[in-house]
Amino acid sequence: MRDGPQGPGGRASRSRRRGEPAKGRASRRRRRGEPAKRAARVIFHDVYTNVPPEEIERFVRSQELGRLVTVAADGTPHLGLYPFTYDGAAFEIHLVRSDEQIADLGVRPRCMFEVDEVLATIPSYWVDPENAIMATAYHRTVMFDCEATVSGDAAELAAQQMRLLARYQPEGGFRPVTPDDPLYHGAIHHITAVRLDVRSRRAKFKLAQNRPLDARAKIVDELRKRGRPNDERAAAALTWTIEQEAKR
Amino acid sequence: MRDGPQGPGGRASRSRRRGEPAKGRASRRRRRGEPAKRAARVIFHDVYTNVPPEEIERFVRSQELGRLVTVAADGTPHLGLYPFTYDGAAFEIHLVRSDEQIADLGVRPRCMFEVDEVLATIPSYWVDPENAIMATAYHRTVMFDCEATVSGDAAELAAQQMRLLARYQPEGGFRPVTPDDPLYHGAIHHITAVRLDVRSRRAKFKLAQNRPLDARAKIVDELRKRGRPNDERAAAALTWTIEQEAKR
Q1: pLDDT tens-digit profile, chain A (248 residues)
Q2: Which of A64, A227, B169, B187 has the fewest CB atoms within 10 Å, measured from its CB?
Q3: Phi-psi region of A208 (alpha: psi -120 to 50; beta: other; left: phi over 0)
Q4: Chain B residues touching A43 at Cβ < 8 A
Q5: What is the ipTM of this complex?
Q6: Residue B126 C-alpha, separation from nearest chain A C-alpha, in angstroms
Q7: Euclidean distance between CA atoms B3 and B178, whole angstroms
Q8: Residues B14, B19, B23, B29, CA torsion sign
């Protein structure tokens, strides 16, 4: 099993698509004494991170829960899953006041908010009859480096609940949340509103972009034949990468 | 929307099931001058964390990818999704050598390995006609506090690849991974084996255990009627909690 870049495969395929021999442009660059076009950053390798911003936004908004990752004073990481709103600049979530992650944010407001979708693991022989290293996993992951602001203000909490409900329950079917309604008094004093201002973002869409288009098409076929619960979704995600290359 | 414990609901329903008036056993305990049975730990409230160990094991082994959470020297958290093996005492994953998470583990071998399954968000009116706070989210999450050991040894890497393949590709269809096979030489020198020894574990199965059995049964019906992609899985998970209480 191999997680990460797959050597020259992705580049070579792109060169071939443009009618050049494999590695032609890279070796020409070397002959000219130019540095490699981009420094190798392995986990966030270009082939997986070069995702159009509008697709990242679409994906983030399609996710029902996100993961807040905080770090305690002693360096221990903590994680929790939360429903969220997102406006492109900040996330909003709420936690129970006594939650350890609220204590973490009091010490260290810098944190991560992450959304991901596990799509599939595939056997190596879908790609190569012998090479086990071709076994891999597909997923979409976006990580936001955030600065948290925590508020226990009742009016702010009620307003935040209304924004969360507007996302998850737009059809209504509830009494508006206000700070003074006795129905909500207890709950509001039990929770804390957290606003996560986004400082930067990294996406990793690991969707076989390192494989030539015909290999990807074959994987799509195999996923559809196998038909595990997420395989159709994985096939659609790989097909999206094929369509993206056709647009370039 | 409310994430967290829901007050006395869960306890009361359990007492009622045993033919006692709501809160009967708790108040009897108070009359006898005994402390509450367990201290309140909010995010890991008993009602969500009291999951049989064999069910936690089953869930962890059913997941295809897990999340490694590491903390950099400057306190920044990092996260990556990986295929894994798990033997009940340790996880095994592999990363690219130059990955920032390998640098993190060099500084701070303590880390988290997490698996989760997002099941559903539900509207409040499935539970109450007025109270918006009843809107919630269901998920299963298990977090492992781990100590990492990193190895770049070729023989160890090859052996680890074989263990990963035994899990994900038991049907074979590849040439055995050995440190000397030229087919694998490059890849093996590109990756690092990580072993994560489990020090402790916390589970949060948030599956409406805070609701009386009849309310849970109604949510199960509504999930099946709604029929989003994960709703059947969510309905099965809530049904499991109903069956668990019947066993007690």
Answers
A1: 544 433 333 333 333 333 333 334 444 433 333 334 444 334 456 889 999 999 999 999 999 999 999 999 999 999 999 999 999 999 999 999 999 999 999 999 999 999 999 999 999 999 999 999 999 999 999 999 999 999 999 999 999 999 999 999 999 999 999 999 999 999 999 999 999 999 999 999 999 999 999 999 999 999 999 999 999 999 999 999 999 988 87
A2: A227
A3: left
A4: 80, 95-96, 99-101
A5: 0.84
A6: 10
A7: 48
A8: negative
Name which of B1, B100, B177 is nearest A168 (Cβ-Cβ): B1
Residue contact A173–B125, C-beta within 8 A: yes
Listing DSSP states for B162-209 in one string gives HHHHHHH-TT--SPPP-TT-HHHHHHHTTEEEEEEEEEEEEEEEESST
SS3 B98: coil
Q: How many CA atoms lie within 13 A of A57 on its CB side?
A: 7
Structure tokens at B121: 């968000």
Burial of residue B203 (CB within 10 Å: 0-12, 13-18, 19+) is: buried
Say how far residue A137 (Cα) sits from the centre of its chain: 14
Domain ranges of chain A: 46-247
| Class (C level, CATH) for A46-247 | mainly beta
Instruction: Kindly determine whether residue A77 and residue B71, on different chains, have CB atoms separated by under 8 Å.
Output: yes
Q: What amino acid occupies position A175? A: R
Q: Do A44 and A204 contact (CB within 8 A), yes or no? A: yes
Residues near B78 by beta carbon (within 8 Å), at least 6 away in sequence: A112, B69, B70, B71, B72, B100, B101, B104
